[in-house]
Amino acid sequence: MTSRNSSTQLWLITHYHENGSLYDYLQRTALDSESCLALASSIICGLVHLHVEIFGTQGKPAIAHRDLKSRNILVKSNRQCCIADLGLAVMHSQGSDYLDIGNNPRVGTKRYMAPEVLSEQIRTDCFESYKKTDIWAFGLVLWEIARRTAVNGIVEEYRPPFFDVVPSDPSFEDMKKVVCVDQQTPAVPNRLYSDSVLSALARVMKECWYQSPSARLTALRIKKTLRKLSRSLEKPKQDC
C-alpha cells in the first residue's frame, strides 16, 4: 500500500520471469526429451500443490485452476514452470465443505475446455469435477511441449491444440463439435514413439483425454509417473 499525491494506491508485486509464458517459450525454443520431461514435471507438481488441501496454520484450501493453458504457465530462469493467473480458480475446504465457483459454468479458454464443460454436463456442485477439467487441459499442454521436442533431429513448429481442426479463435460451438460430437483429440506425432520418454508422455496425454472425467488420471498419479520416468533417466548416468 503506497501513497502518491495524497491518494492511496494498492500495488501487487510479483516475481518477474524473463522467459515469459510457456506459450512464448515454446515458440522460440526446441527441447530435448530431458528438458521436455523437466517442464512437464514442474507443471504437474504445481497442479498437485493446487489440487491438494493442506491443513494447519500454513495450510491452504484445495484449488482447481479452471483456465490452465500454456499462456498461463510461466517459465522461470532455471526452466522450472510456475502456474499463474488464478482469476477463475475455485476453492474447496473439506471442513466447511464450501465451494466457491461463481455463476458461469462456461469459463476458461474455449480451446482448452474439457468435453463436459463444452457440453455443459459438468457437475457444478462437485469440486472433483473442476480438478478433472484441469487434467484435460494439462494433457493439451503436455502435447504442446512434446511437439516442440526434437527426436532424431526432427521437431514440429509450435502449434496450439486443435490447430488443424478449428479456426485461430474458435467459438464455443466450434470446440463443442470437435471435442464432444466428433470426440477428437490432438494427433500425437508418430516420431514421439521412437523415444522412451516421449512415448511414456504420449500415454499420459491420452489418459488425460478420456471423455469420461472419472477415467482421467489424477494430478498425483501423473506426478508419480513422471517422477519414475525421471529416475529411469538418472540411473544410466550414475553407472558411467
UniProtKB/TrEMBL annotation:
- Gene3D superfamilies xref list: Transferase(Phosphotransferase) domain 1 (1.10.510.10)
Gene Ontology MF terms? ATP binding; metal ion binding; transmembrane receptor protein serine/threonine kinase activity
Which cofactors are required for activity? Answer: Mn(2+); Mg(2+)
Q: Any coiled-coil ranges, and where?
A: none
Q: Mind telling me which PROSITE patterns this protein's record contains?
A: PROTEIN_KINASE_DOM, PROTEIN_KINASE_ST
Q: Which domain of life is it from?
A: Eukaryota
The biological processes this protein is annotated with in GO are: angiogenesis; heart development; tissue development; transforming growth factor beta receptor signaling pathway
Keyword Membrane annotated: yes
Keyword terms: ATP-binding, Kinase, Magnesium, Manganese, Membrane, Metal-binding, Nucleotide-binding, Receptor, Serine/threonine-protein kinase, Signal, Transferase, Transmembrane, Transmembrane helix
EC assignment: the record states 2.7.11.30
**Which GO CC terms are listed, alphabetically?**
BMP receptor complex
Span of the secretion signal? Answer: none
Report membrane topology. Single-pass type I membrane protein
Where in the cell is the protein located?
A: Membrane
The UniProt record lists the Protein kinase domain at 1-229
Return any one Pfam family short name: PK_Tyr_Ser-Thr
State the family it belongs to.
Belongs to the protein kinase superfamily. TKL Ser/Thr protein kinase family. TGFB receptor subfamily.
- What PANTHER family does UniProt report for this protein, alphabetically? SERINE_THREONINE-PROTEIN KINASE RECEPTOR R3 (PTHR23255:SF66), TRANSFORMING GROWTH FACTOR-BETA RECEPTOR TYPE I AND II (PTHR23255)
The name this protein goes by in its record = receptor protein serine/threonine kinase
